Amino acid sequence: LFLPQVVNYAFACEVALTGLHLLRGRSRGGHELKALYERLPEPTKDRIRGPNWSAADVKAALKRDGRAFEVFRYGYEGRNRLVTSPVFLRFFTNSCIAVLREERVS
């Protein structure tokens, strides 16, 4: 069940990041998590990272996992090298969703 877990976290993260852009009146589509994250304002990125992850850690993880949705959804075909950190994806997705909820209410 590793592949579905990664695909679902990556897609949920993509939706949350896109939602953060939409709240600012900007439409940012695509599956690339790194690009969606990097276009956010610094205070929002700081809140997503929280106290446990440095900017460098998140940048490195997104470089590795930024295309997880695209790569892992067809992972069973064996066309791509499957390397990721489900721990990071779970953390990052949950943080993105939490920040989206906070910003949507305020």
Structural account:
This protein has about 110 residues and is an all-alpha fold. It contains six helices and no strands. Helix 1 (about 1-25) packs parallel to helix 6 (about 85-105) and helix 3 (about 40-50) crosses helix 6. It is globular and about 45 Å long. The mean pLDDT is about 85.
Biggest β-sheet: count, sense, barrel? Answer: none
Helix content, binned percent: 55-70%
In the predicted model, the low-confidence regions spanning at least 5 consecutive residues are: none
Q: What is the helix tally?
A: 6
Radius of gyration: 13 Å
Q: Total strand count, please?
A: 0
Written as H for each helix and E for each strand, in order along the chain, the element string is HHHHHH
Distance between the termini: 37 Å
Beta-strand share of residues: under 5%
Mean pLDDT metric: 84
Instruction: Classify the secondary structure makeup into a structural class.
Output: mainly alpha
What overall form do the CA principal axes indicate?
globular
Keywords for this structure?
106 residues; globular; mainly alpha
Briefly characterize the structure.
The chain has helices at residues 2-23, 33-38, 42-49, 55-65, 68-72, 86-105.
